[in-house]
Amino acid sequence: MGQAVTRRGLLGAGLAGACSAAAHPMPSTMTLAAAPFDARLVVIILRGGMDGLGVVAPYADPLWADYRPSLADASAMGDLDGFFGLHAGLAELRPLWNRGELGFVHAVSTPYRDKRSHFDGQDLLEAGTGQAAPEAGVRDGWLNRLLGAMPGTVAETAFAVGMDEMRVLRGDAPVLQWSPQADVALTPQAQVLLEQVYARDPLFAAAAAEAMDLAEAIDREKLTPLANGLPREPLAAFAAERLNEGTRVASYSLTGWDTHKRQAGSLNRALARLQRSILSLHEGLGGNWERTAVIAMTEFGRTARENGSRGTDHGTGGLMVLAGGALRGGRIYGDWPGLEEAALYDRRDLMPTADVRAYAASAIQGLFGIGRSTLEGAVFPGLDMGGTPGLAL
Amino acid sequence: MELYDRPIGPETYAAIRFGTGFPLRGAPATAEAMLNRLAGPDRVAAAYPRLSFDEGIALGTAVREAMRQARKNMAGGAEAVKVAHRALAAARGAGFVLELARHVETDDPFRERLVRFWENHFAAASRRGAHVAAASGYADEAIRPHIAGPFSTLLKSAVTHPFLMMYLDQPESVGPNSRKGLRHGRGLNENLAREVLELHTLGVGGPYTQADVTEFAELLTGLHFTGKKGFAFQPGMAEPGAETVLGRTYGGDKPELADIHAVLDDLAVHPSTAAFVCRKLAVHFVADDPDPDLIAFMQAAYRVSGGHLTRVYAAMLEHPASWRGFGAKVKTPMEFMTSGLRALGARAADLDKLGPNHVRKRLLRPLRLMGQPYQRPPGPDGFADDAEAWVQPFGLAGRIGWAMRAARSLGQLAPDPREFVRTALGDATSGRLIWAAGAAETRPDGVGVVLASAEFNRR
Known about the structure:
The complex is a heterodimer. By secondary structure, chain A is α/β, with parallel strands linked by helices. Chain A has one domain (32-180, 218-379): Alkaline Phosphatase, subunit A (3-Layer(aba) Sandwich). Helix content of chain A is 33%, strand content 13%. In chain A, strands 1, 5, 6, 7, 8, 9, 10, 11 and 12 form a nine-stranded mixed beta sheet that branches. Chain A has a three-stranded antiparallel beta sheet with strand order 2-4-3. In chain A, strand 3 and strand 4 form a beta hairpin. In chain A, helix 1 crosses helix 9 and helix 7 crosses helix 13 (372-379). The longest helix of chain A has 23 residues, at 263-285. Chain A is globular and about 70 Å long. By secondary structure, chain B is mainly α. Helices cover 59% and strands 3% of the residues of chain B. The longest helix of chain B is centred in the first third of the chain and has 29 residues, at 77-105. Chain B starts with 9 loop residues before the first helix and ends with a helix. At the A-B interface, strand 7, helix 8 and helix 9 of A face helix 11, helix 21, helix 23, helix 24 and helix 25 of B.
């Protein structure tokens, strides 16, 4: 915050004098009043369809190994509750699990069924609507609609992090976007010149000042390793920095989950990044971790059986990952449908037994105190939260 | 607070607000000359031809076929997939470079701007990425030839084009009581019908109801496309019986393509369509919040001409509001990049020499960073068209980064920034910018500062 104001000082009195805060076209750190709430929400979209059965594996069920002769390795699973085991790729999260700051919801899905297309599945996940989202002409995302339902939000309240368009944050409520990949390529002298050039254009001046602050704050070269020596994950590190200031909602996506072949290696890589991402949020947020909920969602799960190339194909029921000090972790939520062939969806995929939106809504309800009718109406139209357990502490 | 120092002459409006930027390269400097040029042949498309839609589709189909073979574990399958993917990406890159070439070379820049406007109006993309190479063919074949005639012609051309149909799920839509619907229990998909009413004709506030959407969707059943057979009207998928849209009844027992054309013809001349299209044109070219008098004047021309687009453009160019308030609009990233290249003196031959890696790193990726990934609109409503949407920290950082790098890539060939200000901006400069250009540490940095300036990014 202090840095932001100093940076803006470079622009001189021209900008500050010419534009009142009210007329300012772009809410900035300078004009930002303290957010009226203290809780923080991070939504991670896992693009590609995470294999829930490989990440939190029902390893005590012999069918699991039967379905996945080359992939299932019970010895590599860290036991969670005697029935489910955690993939070794997330082993560094064990301390969070032990403290009740990591949890999962199993056998969940969006209302999307049957066609198993990444693009349609992600569209629906981010739109937060029922199956007929595109026909209904819904273009915004559920996280943006949530912002609309929260009092006193300004642009900085919500950050879309990374280069990918985060449809989940698209909509009428203002949202800022930034990616650590941005590089203004300016020498210090050219930067000063440009600031003077922009001085008479409030829109450009404000956006440029904000950009310079952000570019400085997230110099990738300056990222220190995590306490366990792993490299910090840039998107999460940036999100944590913003969440420690005025931002309350951040979203980004992680890819690499579409593990059609040689899944052992590819899933490991994707999980390593997710693990670093959660650890980077945890460390970066410091004391604010207590007030934070992280939810990671994917467009669908994968087939119960492995395929002919030691991978898995697009499925239905999947896994949601929960983290953060504001959530009640250390447990696996959900209604486990079993792996018997007759219990599978289409005799091939894990049967979804709950709507993933209901769990997201439950977390939000506890976190921000948003009413159930708003969640079932405006944020996730058509959702019935039913008896979804409360996730927030 | 004035950004520019002095009143700006019509030549600068023609070049920057309505064109692809300085240098003029034979481009017209008056409204009358712009319209005359538009009435003439489309020379630049002929000079820089791109892959046809069918050729683009064939490249996508080849990738799918290679993947199918690879799944069957055919020998060399993985390699064949790689080759097919490479061909697809190369075709997309080549189409992009040819589009840039048209923008930097053209002496008919108003046409390029209109093509991009209408391409965004009828926004479509390859949802699954398989047919990315077909997007250029869609723009060149379904939109480009029809931008100066009746809106109804353009509307029918775009809406019945396989690329837009695929994007809006039309191949999924089957009349529930059609032969196919009854046999396979298939039903309607309303996506295309809804978007045509909401985005292409009447506008979101238009006078239509859900019943209109449903009946229109029923009328559209039969519009069909498959990768193998191409576009065909399929009576076996079409919902039998007449449908009522906005109070008029179309079709009868025997479904025909002509019924679909009839409803589109009526939609094209609907007063709400006139209002929606005229306002959108004025917003794109003149101001985020255009003078109501300008819109009314354009609407009158629309009404009198039955939606003849050149008459609407003429009204826009005739109205004094179009020649006032320079800088009210912010260039889209694509406009920014193409006008930047033009100002830097890049020619088609230079662009042609860039290898695929350079095209990706120096042009396609920066466009994405600026917020306008090439041929990937965020939705059927297209890219945003207002200053606040584009001038955000992240998007502006993308513009600044590209400006500085593009200028530096010229090295010793970089022009003198003090001259470049005038080459690039004509009289749309300011003393402050001229000073800054001259105060930079190096020539490329001075050129980069000019490109990144608000003066250059506005029109």
